[in-house]
Amino acid sequence: MKNLFLSLAIAIFTVSGALAQEATPVSGGPEISVNKDVHDYGTIKQGANGSCEFELTNNGSEPLIISKAKGSCGCTVPEWPKEPIMPGKSAVMTVRYDTKRVGPINKSVTITSNATNASTKVVRIKGKVLASENTEDMPVKKSTMAPSN
Hints:
13% of the residues lie in helices and 40% in strands.
């Protein structure tokens, strides 16, 4: 009888211990990291080169696929790698900003991927575009007011 209770207690202890263990999260898959969250152009002149680069790295164990990258407006145009980024490898995403627009720059690019750590990642560009000193190239706005006498 003692052996029966002892065997039953050991069985219950073993089963309850197995059920009490937490499920471990599935590891693996692609993981995205970016070399910088923000690119600062500083102060640039109107018409200057508005291109910058972000380095995308796959720190995971499966290929990283960037399905889309979208600028916050039409003046911010990203070009991203269309081929999968293999584990441990990096690729470059180029972002072009239209520097014909004068004033502050504060735009974002949303990257959509199959990354397990962040399926969407947002990077930003910032800076300021100063008006060109050469106003001959600037369009002239015609006045709609009647001339005064």
